[in-house]
Amino acid sequence: MPEAHKSLDTSTEMGNGIFITFEGSEGAGKSTQVRLLTEHLRKTGLPVLTLREPGGTELGEEIRTLVRRVDFAEAPCAEAELLLFLASRAQLVREEILPALHNGMVVICDRYCDSSIAYQGAARSLSLEQIGSINAFAIGKCVPDITFLLDLDPLEGLRRIRLRHGSEADDRMERESVAFFEKVRNGYRKLAQVEPARFVILDAHKPVEMVHEKIYDLLCQRFGTTFKNH
Ligand SMILES: Nc1ncnc2c1ncn2[C@@H]1O[C@H](COP(=O)(O)OP(=O)(O)OP(=O)(O)O)[C@@H](O)[C@H]1O
Ligand SMILES: [Mg+2]
After folding, report:
1. Ligand 1 geometric centre to CA of 25 (Å)
2. Strand 199-203, strand 48-52: pairing
3. What is the count of structural domains for the chain?
4. Residue of 222, 220, 189 whose CA lies nearest to 204
5. Which atom of ligand 1 is nearest to the CA of 22?
6. What is the DSSP letter of 212?
7. Long-range contacts made by residues 172-179, C-beta under 8 angstroms, separation at least 24?
8. 104: containing domain
9. Which of 58, 85, 105, 206 has a C-alpha 20 to 30 A away from that of 155?
10. 52 located within any domain
11. 75 in any annotated domain
12. Which of 37, 160, 162 to mutate to test the pocket of ligand 1 (most atoms within 8 A of CB)?
């Protein structure tokens, strides 16, 4: 077994990089916006690392396969599901995110700590306090500098997913009900209210390009010295 990433202390500062996360319910456009932002920043010459959750490491990608599986005889309980996501996150922080931030990179992550609160907390009703503690254990001080919440009507999100998949089967999460995704949406909105300095809520019903421009403009405003010259 390779040596664990012990040397990186998550209680220390995050380095000079910028950590950007995207959140939102199924089909809100996270992966689309992550791709557009990555391409835009790469063209301007900024060093960018793009990651996704669960996944982004060898361990995380195995966990991704597990949590998306639909053929378990007994579906994973909410607690087990939460811990699987958190295991993937803990590895991602130490193996990828912190080293990149210490190297001054812009790190873009498709889902991160807030997904656990919205999905396993707001929607699956696990204790928000307990999720907060386990999240803190997994990420330490590796909190995003800015989080874009793509806010979308769940019915529209599910419609987009069906269009995207064509005949491809839904994963386990996508088989949840509209009521479940309403809870996810409301959970995210509450989170954004609690941390207005970190969250930016975006209307994800707007066209892809318009959402992207808003994201880029906001980043220029927020991180002017890094972004404006590019
Ligand atoms: N603003 C938009 N307007 C219309 N369609 C969109 C918009 N953004 C994304 N889409 C389309 O909706 C589908 C879902 O988008 P995407 O995969 O980016 O969402 P996601 O939030 O990453 O979903 P998931 O939670 O399943 O990963 C894609 O087919 C994409 O092209
Ligand atoms: Mg996606």
Report:
1. 10
2. unpaired
3. 1
4. 189
5. 21
6. H
7. 172/67, 172/68, 172/69, 172/70, 172/75, 173/26, 173/67, 173/68, 173/119, 174/26, 175/70, 176/123, 178/154
8. 18-222
9. 85
10. yes
11. yes
12. 160
Q: What is the pLDDT of residues 91-139, one digit of tens each?
A: 999 999 999 999 999 999 999 999 999 999 999 999 999 999 999 999 9
Q: Is the pTM of this model over 0.90?
A: yes
Residues with C-beta less than 6 Å from any ligand 1 atom: 24, 26-32, 160-161, 163-164, 204, 206-208, 211
Query: What tokens does 16 get?
Result: 């000079």
CA distance 226 to 230: 8
Other Cβ atoms less than 10 A from the Cβ of 120: the count is 24
Angle at 117 between CA 139 and CA 29, to 5 degrees: 95
Residue 35 alpha carbon, nearest atom of ligand 1:
18
Find out whether 182 and 118 touch, Cβ atoms under 8 Å: no
**81-to-23, 68, 129, 153 alpha-carbon distances in Å:** 18, 10, 17, 25
Atom number in ligand 1 closest to CA 34: 18
Determine the distance from the C-alpha atom of residue 18 to the mean position of all C-alpha atoms in its chain, rounded to a whole number.
Answer: 15
pLDDT at 11 over 60: no
Determine contact, residues 50/38, Cβ cutoff 8 Å. Answer: yes
**138 is a domain residue:** yes
- Tell me whether residue 228 is in a domain: no
Q: What is the arithmetic mean of pLDDT over 181-199?
A: 97
How far apart CA 198 and CA 117 sit, in angstroms, is: 15
